[in-house]
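Hypothesis: this fold can be encoded by more than one sequence.
Test: take the structure tokens below, design a sequence, compare later.
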């Protein structure tokens, strides 16, 4: 699982060039049937949502892989089960051209480190990336812990935003099976 901000950060660091998709790399080393389940809780403006997402590797080729995602959401006391959907992840990402003019947006503050987390009774050596960004007068702090031993790489995530749209999101791997 890779998120758009991480993809954009990768592009800023490496420059605009064709590159192997990090998501492809994270999943291609496993066999079909490998899966990871993540549980997340979000609170936005007093509304709490719980989401469980199971991501399963369906197929791998030299050009792409196919991932199936199934999601269940609990909003208040209403349970919503979405039918599983598949998406193709190409091995190569196209060249991305960034605007040449200087951006007036503030640059995010990025802190990296290592941290050992205990997940599912296992101690995992994780990479931690904490990003602090100013967005529309509010501060957003996002921390992601990743580990190459977990399918999809993401082990835990936390995001908080202050200001008028105060929100908190937390997610952690609750199961994974390697084939």
């Amino acid at each position: 699982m890779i998120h758009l901000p991480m993809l954009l950060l990768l592009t800023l660091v490496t420059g605009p060039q064709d590159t192997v998709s990090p998501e492809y790399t994270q999943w291609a080393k496993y066999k079909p049937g490998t899966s990871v389940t993540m549980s997340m809780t979000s609170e936005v403006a007093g509304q709490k949502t719980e989401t469980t997402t199971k991501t399963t590797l369906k197929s791998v080729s030299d050009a792409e892989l196919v991932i199936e995602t199934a999601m269940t959401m609990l909003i208040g006391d209403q349970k919503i089960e979405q039918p599983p959907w598949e998406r193709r992840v190409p091995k190569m990402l196209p060249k991305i051209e960034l605007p040449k003019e200087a951006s007036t947006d503030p640059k995010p503050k990025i802190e990296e480190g290592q941290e050992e987390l205990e997940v599912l009774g296992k101690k995992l050596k994780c990479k931690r990336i904490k990003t602090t960004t100013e967005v529309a007068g509010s501060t957003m702090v996002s921390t992601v812990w990743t580990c190459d031993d977990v399918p999809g790489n993401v082990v835990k995530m936390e995001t908080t935003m202050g200001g008028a749209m105060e929100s908190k999101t937390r997610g952690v791997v609750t199961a994974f099976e390697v084939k």
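The CA atoms of residues 42 and 169 lie 4 Å apart. The first helix runs from residue 4 to 14.
Hypothesis status: open.
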